[in-house]
Specification:
CATH superfamily of chain B: MetI-like
CATH architecture of chain B: Orthogonal Bundle
CATH topology of one domain in chain A: Rossmann fold
Radius of gyration of chain A: 20 Å
Low-confidence stretches of chain A: none
CATH class of chain B: Mainly Alpha
Largest interface: B-C, 84 and 82 residues
Number of helices of chain B: 11
CATH topology of chain B: MetI-like fold
Distance between the termini of chain A: 23 Å
Strand content of chain B: under 5%
Shape of chain B: flat
Structural class of chain B: mainly alpha
Chains: A alpha/beta, B mainly alpha, C mainly alpha
Oligomer: heterotrimer
Structural class of chain A: alpha/beta
Number of strands of chain B: 0
Order of helices and strands of chain A: HEEEHEEHEHHHHEHEHEEHH
CATH superfamily of one domain in chain A: P-loop containing nucleotide triphosphate hydrolases
Order of helices and strands of chain B: HHHHHHHHHHH
Largest sheet of chain B: none
Low-confidence stretches of chain B: 1-6
Largest sheet of chain A: 10 strands, mixed
Strand content of chain A: 15-25%
Number of domains of chain B: 1
Strand order of the largest sheet of chain A: 5-4-1-2-10-9-3-8-7-6
Number of strands of chain A: 10
Helix content of chain A: 25-40%
CATH class of one domain in chain A: Alpha Beta
C-alpha cells in the first residue's frame, strides 16, 4: 500500500499523486441515498448511497448477481413495468426526486443504452436517430436534423452513414448498431446516460471504439456505466462503485471512490480481492 | 451546422438544444399522456366489444335452446310443423354416422400424410404443405359442389357423400396438425431408437407417433369439431331426411341441416327445434374444442 | 398416401372446372360480369353476387381490422398475465361456434334489433353518405357484414395477438427508455414489428369471409339484384349456389358451377397469399394457425 504522505519514486510530486488518486469532484448531478430495490419483498440491492458527479464517468462494478444492473435500471425507472418491484430510498436528479416525478419526462433527461444493440428494425438510420425526439413531441424538422447530426457525429457514425440515412438500421454491423443506439439516446440531449454493459455483445475492435467514444462523451453527458470487465472500468471510468452480493442475496455497496484509488489502494479488503481477480 | 463541436467542454449549442428539447417535452407531456390514455382505453373497449358477441350468442342459444331439450327431443325423429312430439334423434344419428365415417377414413390417411411431411423437407413436401394449408381455408360450399359432382351425380344423395365432403374438409387440418405434432417430437427419441437398431417403420409406429399423441389428439378433436359444424357441404350432398335413416348410402338427416332448414320457417315449433339443435351442436363443438385444449395441457404435464 | 391427398385436391379442382365448362361454351366469358340473373330469360350474370360477396367482406373487414387489432393489442400487452389465457381462449372459442348457429342467431335475434334500432340510428347519423337509403329491413348487406365480422374476428385477433406478443422485449424497453408513452411504444415499435403477421391474419380473415355460406345465406335477404344501399337485401356467390342448387338444371346448373369456380379461384388466391404471409413470420403462432383455419 502506498503511503500518500511520502513522495513517490518517479519524481511525481505529492500534489499530483493526490490529484490522481482523489480528483476534484464536479457538482453532483445525481444523488443516491439508501436506495433499495426489492422484487416481491426480496431485496435485490440495498442501502446504496453515493453521488454521481457532473462530467464524469461513474462505473458500477462487481461480480454477477451483485445488483449492478438492477440498480442502474432504477435510475430511469425501468422497474415501473414490473408489478412486484419496489424502489425505496431517494434518488435525486438535481432537485427532482426520480421516483415521484413523471417517468416519461424523466427518461428524456436520463437516457439508456442496452447490453445488446436494439435499433428499431422497421425504421431507417435517420428515423432511429430522431425516434427519441419524436417521442418527446419534437416535430420541427430543423431541430430534428440538427440534433440527429450532432448525435451521430458524437457517436462517430456520421461519416459512414451520412449518405445512407434512409437505409435500414439492420444494414449496420453490430458495433455500428450500438453506436446508433448511443446516438439515438444522445439526440434527446439527456443530462445523464446510463449504459448497461454496452460492449459485452461486441467484438474487441468494436468494444475499443466504443470505449474511446465513451471517453469523449463525458463532456457532453454524465455517464453511469455497468461493466463486469474490470479492465474496462479502469480504462474508462473516473469513479467506481463496487457492489457485492451479501449473505441475504442482496447486493450492497462495498466501496465508492475515484477509480485510481479503488484499484490501487482500496479501503475494503473485498474490493482488493475483486480488483486482484480473486473472484467474479 | 454543428460540425465544429469542441469535445472538451459543453458548448452553448448543446445546452441550448437541450433547453429547447426539454421545453418541447415538458409542454407536450400533458397532450402525449392524454392521447396515450385514450388510445389504450380504446383498445380495452375493443376487447370488450370482442367478448360481447361470444357472450351474446352463447347466452341466447342456451336460453332459447334449453326449453327444447325434452326427452322427446332426444328420442324422436323430426316431425313436420304442427305435429307434436318431434325431436332430432334422427339428425343426431345422422351427424354421428357422418362424423364417424369421415373421421375413420381421414384420420389414418391424414396422419400418414402428416408423418411423411414431417420427415421430408424437400420442395415437393413444401408444395404439399402449402396446398394443405390453402385447402383448410377454401370455401366449404365448393367442397360441397365437389361432393355433389363426385358422388351424388353417380350414386344419388347419401350420407356417404356427406361424409366424403366433410372428410375433404377435415383432411388438410389433420395432415397439418399431425405434421406439427410429429415435428414437435424431439429428434433424440428418433435417434435413440435408430441406435438401438430399429427399422424406420417400427420407429415411426412405436416411438414417434405415441410421443406425438397429445398434439395429434388435439388436432383430430379440432378437426372433428370443425367437420361437425360444417353445413354448406351437407346441403348439397345428403339432402336430409324426415325419418330415421341408419343406412349411410341413402339420404340422411343431420343437425346442421335441421337448423338451417328450420331457421327460415315461420312456424314456432320448428324454430324451437332449430334452437334446440343449435344448442346441441354448439355444446358438442365447444366441448370438443375446449376439451382438446384441456387434454393437450393435461397430457403435456404428464409427459414431464 | 400423400399421393391420395394430392389426387383428391386435383380431382376437386378439375371437377369444378369441367362442370362449369358448358356455361362458358354457351354463354361466352362475359356472363360472369353481367348484372342480371334471370334464369327464365337465360341470363346468368354474376355481377350482383360478386358485388355482394365483396361488399359483405368489406364491411366485415372494416370492422374487424381496428377492433381485432385493438383486442389483440389488449390481449398481448395490456391485460394482466393471470387473466390473459382465459380471455384469449374466450375470443378463440368464437371461432368454434358453427356458422349455422351464427346464422340462426343473426336472423332471429339480431335482425329485429337491426331493423328497429340499429338501422334507423345509422340512417339518421350517416344518411348523408348516401349509403343508407331505403327502408330498414333488418336482413341485408349490413347484417351479413356484421355477422361475418363476428365470425372472422377470432382469426384476426388470434394471429395478431401471437405476433404482437413476440416483439422482442428489448425493443419495447429501448422505446420506453427514450421517453415514449405507452401508446407510442405500441404504435411505433410493437405494431410495426408485427406488421407482416398482422397482414397475414387480415388476409386469412378475408379468405374466411369470402367463403362463408350459411350464416350469410340466412341473413342477407337473398335478392338477385345489385343492392343500392347498405341496408338492402343482396346475395353472395355462396348464397346463390346454396339457394338454387337443389332445383337447378341445365345451363343454370352449369352457371352455378361457374359461380363455384369463381369462388374457388378467389378463395385459393386469397388464402394462398394469406398462408405465404403467415409462414414468413416467426413460428409463434403454430397452434393458432392450424386451429383457427
Amino acid at each position: 500500500m502506498i503511503d500518500p504522505t511520502t513522495p513517490l519514486d518517479e519524481g511525481v510530486s505529492l500534489n499530483t499523486a493526490q490529484v490522481l488518486l482523489d480528483p476534484p469532484a464536479g457538482d453532483p448531478v445525481m444523488r443516491l441515498n439508501d436506495v433499495t430495490v426489492a422484487f416481491a419483498g426480496r431485496k435485490a440491492v440495498r442501502g446504496v448511497t453515493f453521488d454521481v458527479h457532473e462530467g464524469e464517468i461513474t462505473a458500477l462494478i462487481g461480480p454477477s448477481g451483485s445488483g449492478k444492473t438492477t440498480l442502474l435500471r432504477a435510475l430511469n425507472r425501468m422497474h415501473d413495468t414490473v408489478r412486484t418491484a419496489s424502489v425505496t430510498g431517494s434518488i435525486m436528479l438535481g432537485d427532482v426526486d426520480v421516483n415521484t416525478t413523471d417517468a416519461t419526462l424523466l427518461r428524456s433527461r436520463v437516457g439508456m443504452v442496452f447490453q445488446r444493440p436494439n435499433p428499431f428494425p422497421t425504421m431507417s438510420i435517420y428515423e432511429n436517430a430522431v425516434a427519441g425526439l419524436k417521442f418527446n413531441g419534437v416535430r420541427k424538422k430543423a431541430l430534428l436534423d440538427e440534433a440527429a447530426e450532432s448525435a451521430l457525429i458524437a457517436a462517430a457514425l456520421w461519416d459512414s452513414v451520412r449518405d445512407r440515412l434512409k437505409a435500414h438500421a439492420s444494414t449496420l454491423s453490430g458495433g455500428e448498431q450500438q453506436r446508433l443506439c448511443i446516438a439515438r439516446a444522445l439526440a434527446v440531449e439527456p443530462e445523464v446516460l446510463l449504459m448497461d454493459e454496452p460492449t459485452s455483445a461486441l467484438d474487441p475492435i468494436a468494444t475499443k471504439r466504443i470505449e474511446e467514444l465513451v471517453g469523449e462523451l463525458k463532456h457532453r453527458v454524465t455517464i453511469i456505466i455497468v461493466t463486469h470487465n474490470m479492465q474496462q472500468a479502469m480504462r474508462v471510468s473516473d469513479r467506481c462503485a463496487f457492489l457485492l452480493m451479501g449473505e441475504d442475496k442482496a447486493g450492497e455497496l462495498i466501496e465508492f471512490g475515484p477509480t485510481a484509488r479503488l484499484f490501487s489502494e482500496p479501503t475494503d479488503p473485498r474490493t482488493l480481492d475483486y480488483v486482484n481477480g480473486r473472484f467474479g | 451546422m454543428a460540425t465544429t463541436l469542441g469535445f472538451d467542454s459543453p458548448t452553448d449549442p448543446i445546452l441550448e438544444r437541450r433547453r429547447r428539447i426539454q421545453s418541447v417535452a415538458a409542454a407536450s407531456l400533458g397532450r402525449r399522456k392524454v392521447y396515450s390514455k385514450i388510445a389504450v382505453g380504446v383498445c380495452w373497449v375493443f376487447l370488450a366489444i370482442a367478448i360481447v358477441p361470444l357472450v351474446g350468442v352463447v347466452v341466447y342459444v342456451v336460453v332459447k335452446g334449453l326449453p327444447a331439450w325434452t326427452t322427446d327431443f332426444f328420442s324422436h325423429p323430426t316431425t313436420p310443423e304442427g305435429i307434436p312430439g318431434g325431436g332430432v334423434w334422427n339428425a343426431i344419428v345422422g351427424t354421428a354416422e357422418i362424423g364417424f365415417i369421415a373421421t375413420a377414413v381421414t384420420v389414418p390417411l391424414g396422419l400418414l400424410c402428416g408423418l411423411f411431411l414431417a420427415e421430408s423437407d424437400g420442395r415437393t413436401a413444401a408444395a404439399v404443405r402449402f396446398t394443405a394449408d390453402v385447402m383448410t381455408g377454401v370455401p366449404s360450399i365448393t367442397i360441397g359442389i365437389f361432393g355433389y359432382i363426385a358422388i351424388v351425380r353417380n350414386f344419388g344423395y347419401s350420407g356417404l357423400a356427406g361424409a366424403f365432403s366433410i372428410g375433404i374438409i377435415m383432411l388438410p387440418v389433420i395432415i397439418r396438425a399431425g405434421e406439427t405434432a410429429i415435428r414437435g417430437v424431439p429428434r433424440s427419441l428418433n435417434e435413440a431408437a435408430l441406435a438401438l437398431g430399429a427399422r424406420r417403420a417400427t420407429i415411426a409406429r412405436r416411438v414417434v407417433v405415441p410421443a406425438a399423441m397429445p398434439g395429434i389428439i388435439t388436432g383430430v378433436l379440432l378437426a372433428v369439431a370443425r367437420g361437425l359444424g360444417e353445413t354448406a357441404p351437407l346441403l348439397l350432398t345428403i339432402f336430409g331426411n324426415q325419418y330415421m335413416q341408419w343406412n349411410p348410402t341413402k339420404p340422411m338427416p343431420a343437425l346442421p341441416l335441421v337448423i338451417y332448414n328450420n331457421s327460415s320457417q315461420p312456424y314456432a315449433d320448428l324454430l324451437q327445434t332449430a334452437w334446440g339443435a343449435a344448442l346441441l351442436l354448439m355444446v358438442i363443438v365447444l366441448v370438443l374444442s375446449v376439451g382438446s385444449r384441456v387434454l393437450a395441457a393435461v397430457l403435456q404435464r404428464e409427459r414431464r | 398416401m400423400v399421393a391420395i391427398f394430392v389426387a383428391l385436391v386435383a380431382w376437386y379442382v378439375i371437377s369444378i372446372v369441367v362442370q362449369s365448362k358448358p356455361a362458358f361454351s354457351t354463354l361466352g366469358f362475359s356472363w360472369i360480369i353481367q348484372k342480371t340473373w334471370a334464369p327464365g330469360q337465360n341470363k346468368y350474370g354474376l355481377l350482383p353476387f360478386i358485388l355482394g360477396t365483396v361488399e359483405t367482406t368489406a364491411i366485415a373487414l372494416v370492422l374487424a381490422v381496428p377492433i381485432g387489432l385493438g383486442t389483440a393489442i389488449a390481449l398481448a400487452h395490456l391485460v394482466p398475465d393471470r387473466v390473459r389465457p382465459a380471455l384469449s381462449t374466450a375470443v378463440e372459442l368464437l371461432a368454434a361456434v358453427p356458422s349455422v348457429v351464427y346464422g340462426l342467431w343473426g336472423l332471429i335475434v339480431l335482425a329485429p334489433i337491426f331493423r328497429e334500432h340499429v338501422e334507423p340510428f345509422l340512417s339518421s347519423v350517416l344518411g348523408w353518405t348516401g349509403l343508407f337509403n331505403g327502408p330498414d329491413n333488418g336482413v341485408g348487406l349490413l347484417l351479413a357484414g356484421v355477422i361475418l365480422f363476428v365470425m372472422v374476428l377470432p382469426t384476426m385477433v388470434a394471429i395478431s395477438r401471437d405476433v404482437l406478443a413476440v416483439v422482442p422485449r428489448e425493443q419495447v424497453e429501448g422505446a420506453m427508455a427514450l421517453g415514449a408513452t405507452r401508446w407510442q411504444v405500441l404504435r411505433k415499435v410493437v405494431v410495426p414489428g408485427a406488421r407482416t403477421g398482422i397482414l397475414g391474419g387480415f388476409t386469412l380473415a378475408m379468405g374466411r369471409a369470402l367463403g362463408e355460406t350459411v350464416a350469410v345465406a340466412l341473413v342477407i335477404g337473398n335478392s338477385p339484384f345489385i343492392a343500392h344501399s347498405i341496408k338492402a337485401p343482396a346475395a353472395t356467390l355462396a348464397s346463390l349456389i346454396v339457394n338454387n342448387f337443389g332445383e337447378a338444371s341445365g345451363t343454370e346448373l352449369s352457371a352455378l358451377f361457374g359461380a363455384g369456380l369463381v369462388l374457388l379461384l378467389i378463395g385459393v388466391a386469397v388464402n394462398g397469399m394469406a398462408r405465404a404471409l403467415v409462414h414468413s413470420t416467426a413460428r409463434a403462432g403454430g397452434a393458432a394457425s392450424v386451429a383457427v383455419a
